[in-house]
Amino acid sequence: MADSDQADFARLHRWWIVRHVVVVVLQAMVFVGGCVLAFYSAVWALRTTPDLPAAYAVPARDRAGELPGPPIMYWLIWALPPTLIYGIGGIMFWRWKAGRWIVGFLWAGFTVIFPIIALLWIGMDVGGFAPS
Questions:
Q1: How far apart are CA 59 and CA 3, in angstroms?
Q2: Phi, psi (5° rounding) for residue 67?
Q3: pLDDT tens for the 132 residues of the chain, in order
Q4: Among 22, 37, 53, 126, whose CB has the most other CB atoms within 10 angstroms?
Q5: Residue 31 and residue 126: Cα distance in Å, rounded?
Q6: 3-state SS of 55-77?
Q7: CA neighbours within 13 Å on the CB side: how many for 6?
Q8: Under the phi-then-psi rule, with left for phi > 0, alpha for psi from -120 to 50, and beta for the rest, what region is 58?
Q9: Any idea what DSSP says for residue 49?
């Protein structure tokens, strides 16, 4: 009887390990999916935003005078991807209890990549970019 109990325990322990490995792999895949979604969202925003006047290409410290701010559409386009991802994800997080971990890891991946790309490109667009 003791051998049967040990065999059952070993089999259950093996399945427990396999289950947890599969869960960790799925979580990593969803996280990477969020990173990829963030990258493509940022590229879409970059390609869709209206071109700023050529004066913005000059670094801010070297400009002769003040420039008007970027048009409102510029900011709205950059705000659209996070608004959609966090808005739709928030509804899913609220309504789909079993999938909360999916939404959480997707948000985590998106939050790691999108702000970095957005800050880099918006900084170059608005603040100017030139070799020093």
A1: 76
A2: -110, 150
A3: 456 666 666 676 777 788 888 889 999 999 999 999 999 999 999 999 888 777 777 776 677 677 787 889 999 999 999 999 999 999 999 999 888 999 999 999 999 999 999 999 988 888 776 665
A4: 37
A5: 31
A6: HHHCCHHHCCCCCCCCCHHHHHH
A7: 3
A8: beta
A9: S
